[in-house]
Amino acid sequence: xxxxxxxxxxxxxxxxxxxxxxxxxxxxxxxxxxxxxxxxxxxxxxxxxxxxxxxxxxxxx
Length: 61
Prior knowledge:
Elements: E1 18-20, E2 27-30, E3 35-38, H1 49-52
Antiparallel strand pairs: 1-2, 2-3
């Protein structure tokens, strides 16, 4: 098994000073902005799913 990927940037402030959190699997802390967040892999998308999703095209047709 390989090691899990780690985030490179804080999704809130963009800083790189991240540390794993004691809150559990996938939880991270940003030491720069004092925010905590959790990452979760949802799965692979089927080819073409993201381009045809109503969430990505604003829901207009």
